[in-house]
Amino acid sequence: MSQTPELTEEEIDAEIDAVRRERRGRAMGKPEPLLDIVMLVHSQHVWSDLAIRAVEGNTKNPYRLILVDMASTPECKVVLRAAEKRGHTVITLSENRSFSNGVNTGVEAGSSKFIAILNDDAMVTEGWDGAMLQDASVKQVGLVGARSNYASGPQGDPSFIGKPPYLVFVLVALRRQVWDTIGPMDEETFDGFSSEDIDYSWRVLKAGYELKVSSAYVLHAGSRSLAASIGPEQLAKNNQKYNARLVDKWGKDWAAKYSKSGPEKLCVVTYHAENWTRVEFMKNVFGLKRSDGGSIAGFIDIRRAPIHMARQLACDYALDQGFDWVIQLDDDATIPNDLIRRMLAHQKDVVCALAYQRKIPHSICAFEIGEDGLMGRPMEGIEHTGLRKVDISGFHCSIMRTSVIKRLRDGTKDAEGKVLVPGTRQYFGGFENKLGEDFAFSLNLKKIGVQIYCDTELISGHIGSETVVDEAYKKAYLAGQIAPPAQLK
Fold first, then answer.
1. For residue 428, which of 136, 149, 239, 308 is within the disulfide window of CB 3.0 to 4.6 Å?
2. d(CA 479, CA 101)
3. pLDDT of 359 over the 70 cut
4. 9-257 belongs to which CATH class?
5. Strand partners for 350
């Protein structure tokens, strides 16, 4: 890209006069700024000039542009001087201390209801301010981030829909009331240039606000100032240093939970003993979709394998390939399109849909453990009673965190390292003692202290050759209105 030539004093004065003539032609009474736009400027004078002019050309709401001179280069000072003569605010700092320090200085210099923080190598596009101000006006939203061609996480993912775990400050906006509640950026921990934006995002979340990715779009040249000043190798070390500080401040659990840039990864597994149910079942599977903006990242179709081995292979695969959840669907299950949303909403380690056995008397596939430690009576009559804890469940239609599989594989130890429950690779048993794989798995979960839940509002029917054994079928059967299919007698 060719560099913008430096302006002479005469050219600057002529430009200022043109701006003043334009302003004098407007109606009297300049409105109070609705928005303070804070931009830090250090070394990229070409990009800074483009970023400033993009603000001037594409911002429709009354605004105040606050340019923080971070001990900038002589070329940048020319750009800043020209901007100041066009009516923008310039604050000069004696050193380029940190991003947090520069932003805090700029925000403190303003007083508008809304604040935007914009990189000096990012060009706003038409309509940006209207979109972001509308998003930031929502009471529960604490911080809004623009989408971009060059941004990590949700802002750089065109397909992202939902609540982001963090925002990067290529362009963000918030109400000043939120800033006053959260407080300034952390200059002590983040005394340089990395991770301070994620830290502030997490502070917004911790205060009870939501983060939002806006429809506004900003063209980003890609961290030009920092990359040019320290080089790519040092930049990587710099990011590692401040990422480590971020984890130290928030803890590994929080950092792991709120560092993922997209919806959790789901792996759907289907099991098939034969082909007679596939047409009806696959019609349901094709209608299965996520309604939280995410996609199904993996799909496994296992056929002609003993069911305990098939489930074992599927769970190991989902864990080893980095999936967060595994959904298991037998090939004789009926499933609604919103199955995933409904099961994910519980955020429990293991959730099963409620099903009825195909064979007479169509008992519920949720059981108590008997006094002898074996399968006890079915929990009849629990339909539509919400999310219920159960001892044993059929895994005809289920969702499970893969972290549960890891716990089974690793076993359980006490604080001194003594093994309380040994690890196993036979999560679903081996059909020893004629136990079904569902029952064996339920007992293994009980050993490591994982509770099974049954969603009694989510009833999954069993597909048969002549009928579907679901809630309506069982009511009719109990009322003596229908005869059982011949093959089930």
1. 308
2. 75
3. yes
4. alpha beta
5. 400, 452
